[in-house]
Write a structure and sequence with these properties.
The complex is a heterodimer of chains A (about 350) and B (about 270).
Chain A lengths: L3 E8 L4 E8 L3 E5 L6 H9 L6 E6 L2 E5 L4 E2 L7 E4 L11 H6 L7 H6 L15 H14 L4 E5 L7 H18 L3 E5 L2 H7 L2 E6 L2 E6 L1 H6 L4 H6 L3 E10 L2 E6 L4 E4 L2 E2 L1 E7 L5 E3 L9 E13 L2 E6 L2 E6 H7 L6 E6 L5 E4 L5 E2 L5
Parallel strand pairs in A: 3-9, 3-10, 7-8, 8-9
Antiparallel strand pairs in A: 1-2, 1-4, 4-5, 5-6, 10-11, 12-13, 12-16, 13-14, 15-23, 16-22, 17-21, 18-19, 18-21, 19-20
Chain B lengths: L1 H29 L2 H8 L2 H34 L5 H13 L2 H12 L6 H6 L8 H25 L3 H9 L4 H29 L3 H6 L10 H11 L1 H29 L16
Helix pairs in contact in B: 1-12, 2-12, 3-7, 3-9, 3-11, 4-7, 5-7, 7-9, 8-9, 9-12, 11-12
The chains are: A alpha+beta (about 350), B mainly alpha (about 270).
Chain lengths: ~350, ~270
């Protein structure tokens, strides 16, 4: 059995952590805002924290079972843990760091991860990306049965982040270990993990692939976390569609069925921008002032009123978008998800 | 106005330095190097230095052996009463040495708290060389423990956690990670404690007395020779000054030194234990 099974109950400062998670030969990302309890889960699996109650089964062994009084010390749990700030030993060279928990000579591993040249360097002399690689090498040298990564990209600047992310994804694929990854960044999670578990205030509110979370977010929070625009309002049915009266008085149509207080969710890539309301199949048009224009590769992220739209650089050029311009943001009723916000009826029939 | 203030500061500083250094200079002006050497090889001086060296060395081993684990626990664990324990360990720092001597007598003297028990074991501590060692340990150990607690406390606990997840049991975490990273602070504390122990006077003379060749350490010999042979007293004093200067130099050099040691040899073989 290669699966890792975790059940934890623990009191955190503001709430109770209550999480159950099973990870096979895959990478699962615990994703959620800072302070949601993600790191606590990782520390409990590694044995660095003893939860109030819990069960950790991994590598065919029971590492923790508070009911039966089992608590295997961290050094006897076969985990590789990559810490948020990498926690490299500053007084040891790269090779000595990797050697620390190694089961066999580490040269091949150093070679494989492109660290052979740096073997004699001290952690203090390395770049952020190199440190991350050393931390991963050190964790893998232990030949663990479970890999844990706590915010492996958080310590990196945005420029190296994309490169290191791609490299890390490749490494995780090739290790084939059950891996739990903690991140507060949805995009990192989507890029690195096979499956995401969204943790909010100590609970897993939704699990699924990144595509599933985007297509059918379980709550407005998940939707906004996945990058969606969340527009709260009041829903009532209107001629086969649902009409949502937003708090600022504008109306939005959706093919989802709902009633009462809802959040209308639309993703930036489903929003089109124009100077004048287009006469096309898009039923929803919101007028607003452009407050920011951020280029992202060959796309532009444009903030129009309360909406964020992502358009191609080409259409951005055609429109000549500038701060302060008044534009119309349009999106289809079928691209508008409705999620319950507190009370109110809810029927979601437009997607499975 | 600003000028006046700066001049006043400079003058005060000059006076302070003069006051601090003048007695030491006088000490070395009092005896010529030749006289110093001949005074040091005199019987009373040799005896006293030997007693000092012996008792200081034994006391220092005890301080390091017992103080290091205490400091590691106090520096790296959180538990109820930790602050109170640290305060208790540091208490001898502010205790007048004479009080320390009396307190040691009250505890280990023949009519003291543990007097009967020690008597049963056939042990009599006061006025023996063991008493000198105890006095030094009591008075000097806080200097080491205090620094060592701070040094261990400054070690990033994530590093200790990382070592555990890499298969190191607590003992190996201590030896391979905590100890090397705290080495600078430990060395500094060790030097200070040694210097303090070497100069110990008050607690020693009360708890151990001043018997030549037995409990008369160098500082006690200075006091004893004061009336008999002032040159020997001054020579011993000069020697202790030199030792103090050496200790001070070691303390200021240690942090720089530890950065270059402890792991310059690169090993590629995996470590034996897991």
């Amino acid at each position: 059995m290669d699966a890792v099974h975790v059940e934890l109950g623990h009191d955190l400062r503001a709430f109770r952590l209550d999480v159950a998670l099973t990870v096979g030969r895959e990478t699962v990302a615990l994703v959620g805002p800072s302070g949601a309890g993600k790191t606590t889960v990782v520390r409990a699996v590694a044995g660095l924290l003893r939860p109030r109650s819990g069960l950790v089964e991994a590598a065919g062994e029971t590492w923790l079972d508070t009911e039966r009084g089992v608590d295997v010390p961290p050094e006897r749990r076969s985990v590789g843990l990559v810490f948020q700030d990498y926690a490299l030993f500053p007084h040891l060279s790269v090779a000595q760091n990797v050697c620390f928990g190694a089961q066999r000579p580490v040269e091949p591993l150093l070679e494989h991860l492109g660290l052979a040249q740096l073997a004699r360097a001290r952690p203090g002399d390395l770049s952020g990306g190199e440190r991350q690689r050393v931390a991963l090498a050190r964790a893998l040298a232990r030949e663990p049965r479970v890999l844990l990564l706590d915010e492996p990209l958080a310590a990196l600047d945005t420029q190296t982040r994309a490169t290191v992310r791609g490299e890390l994804r490749m490494r995780l694929r090739e290790t084939g270990l059950p891996t739990v990854l903690v991140t507060h960044d949805f995009n990192d999670a989507a890029a690195l993990a096979d499956r995401l578990a969204v943790v909010v205030a100590g609970r897993i509110v939704q699990q699924g692939t990144a595509a599933e979370l985007v297509a059918a977010p379980a709550s407005p929070f998940v939707a906004s976390f996945a990058g969606g625009n969340v527009l709260p309002g009041r829903a009532r049915s209107s001629g086969g569609l649902t009409e949502v009266m937003l708090h600022d008085g504008t109306r939005v149509l959706s093919t989802d069925g709902a009633y009462g207080e809802v959040a209308a969710v639309v993703y930036p890539w489903d929003v089109a921008l124009a100077r004048d309301a287009p006469d096309d199949s898009m039923q929803n048009h919101l007028h607003g002032e452009v407050t920011s224009v951020v280029p992202l590769g060959n796309r532009l992220r444009v903030r129009v009123g309360t909406l964020t739209a992502e358009i191609t650089a080409a259409s951005g050029e055609r429109l000549a978008v500038r701060d302060g311009d008044r534009l119309v943001a349009s999106f289809k009723a079928s691209a508008t998800r409705l999620l319950p916000l507190g009370g109110g009826g809810f029927a979601n029939d437009s997607h499975g | 106005m600003k000028r006046l203030f700066e001049v006043a500061c400079a003058v005060t500083a000059g006076l302070a330095f003069a006051f601090l250094l003048l007695p030491l200079v006088a000490l070395f002006l009092r005896v010529s190097p030749g006289a110093l050497v001949s005074a040091l090889v005199s019987e009373p001086a040799r005896e006293a230095l030997l007693v000092s060296l012996e008792t200081s060395a034994i006391a220092h081993v005890i301080i390091l052996a017992a103080g290091t684990p205490v400091a590691y626990l106090l520096g790296t664990r959180d538990f109820r009463g930790r602050r109170a324990l640290i305060a208790a360990v540091e208490l001898p720092l502010v205790l007048p040495p004479a009080v320390a001597g009396i307190a040691l007598l009250a505890a280990f003297g023949s009519r003291g708290l543990l007097g009967d028990e020690l008597d049963l074991l056939g042990v009599s501590l006061p006025f023996t060389q063991a008493a000198v060692v105890l006095a030094i340990v009591f008075v000097a150990s806080p200097f080491y423990i205090r620094q060592a607690v701070a040094a261990f406390g400054a070690v990033d606990r994530t590093l200790l956690d990382a070592a555990r997840t890499l298969g190191a049991a607590p003992g190996r975490v201590f030896a391979r990670v905590a100890l090397p990273l705290a080495a600078g602070g430990l060395g500094a504390g060790s030097s200070l404690a040694f210097a303090r122990g070497l100069g110990e006077f008050g607690a020693t003379i009360i708890f151990a007395g001043s018997f030549p060749g037995e409990t008369r350490t160098a500082p006690l010999a200075i006091y004893a020779e004061l009336d008999r042979d002032f040159d020997v007293a001054v020579a011993l004093g000069a020697l202790l000054v030199l030792v103090s200067v050496a200790v001070l130099a070691a303390v200021s050099l240690l942090p720089a030194w530890t950065r270059f040691t402890s792991s310059s040899a690169t090993t590629f073989a995996p470590s034996a234990s897991t």
